[in-house]
Amino acid sequence: MFAFRLDSRSGVPTYLQLVEQVRRGLLLGYLVDGEQLPTVREVAAALVVNPNTVAKAYRELERAGLAAPRAGQGTFVIGNDDQVPHGVHVKLAARLRAWVRSAHEAGLAPEQVRALVTTVLDDENTAARTEAA
Fold first, then answer.
1. What is the 3-state secondary structure (H, E, C) of 60-80?
2. Which of the four pLDDT bands, split at 50, 70 and 90, describes residue 81?
3. Which residue windows are coiled coil (predicted)?
4. Burial level of 101, CB count in 10 A (0-12/13-18/19+)?
5. Nearest by Cα to 32 from 22, 41, 20
6. Residue 54 — very low, low, confident or very high, per pLDDT cuts 50/70/90?
């Protein structure tokens, strides 16, 4: 079963962290169409958060079309056609892990690694939009 994790230092509200983890889980194939999410109570107990926070995340997932409640059964993931193919995921994840290790060995802290990755992604997106125009 899918397990959520929280980063108390991220500054991102708890419910949004949960939503993002489901979104990422779908894209990477960790979650699949029809898979049941843990109950609100299970998540709240595991993460030691207010059940209303988890319920808010699940409502947001429903609004985003990523999950749907089934009366008396729980909340289930709705399929995603944007999933990264498994072979591509494995290959790129291995290369990314090696790069992250190199960044850590070079003395970069996790937030510096995130900032660098975000900057490169933003630069690539800007370049792609410029080429498309």
1. HHHHCCCEEEECCCEEEECCC
2. low
3. none
4. exposed
5. 22
6. very high
- State which of 38, 58, 77 marks the end of a domain: 77
Task: Give the whole-angstrom CA distance, residue 64 versus residue 66.
Answer: 6
Amino acid at 22: V
The interaxial angle of helices 110-132 and 86-105, nearest 10 deg, is 130
The arithmetic mean of pLDDT across residues 94-100, rounded, is 95
Q: Which pLDDT score, from 0 to 100, does residue 103 have? A: 96
pTM (predicted TM-score): 0.73
In this predicted structure, the answer to whether residue 96 has a pLDDT above a threshold of 70 is yes
Mean pLDDT taken over the chain: 91
* Domain limits for position 97: 86-132
Domain count, the chain: 2
**Residue 7 within a domain:** no
The dihedral formed by the CA atoms of 27, 16, 50 and 7, expressed in degrees to the nearest 10: 80
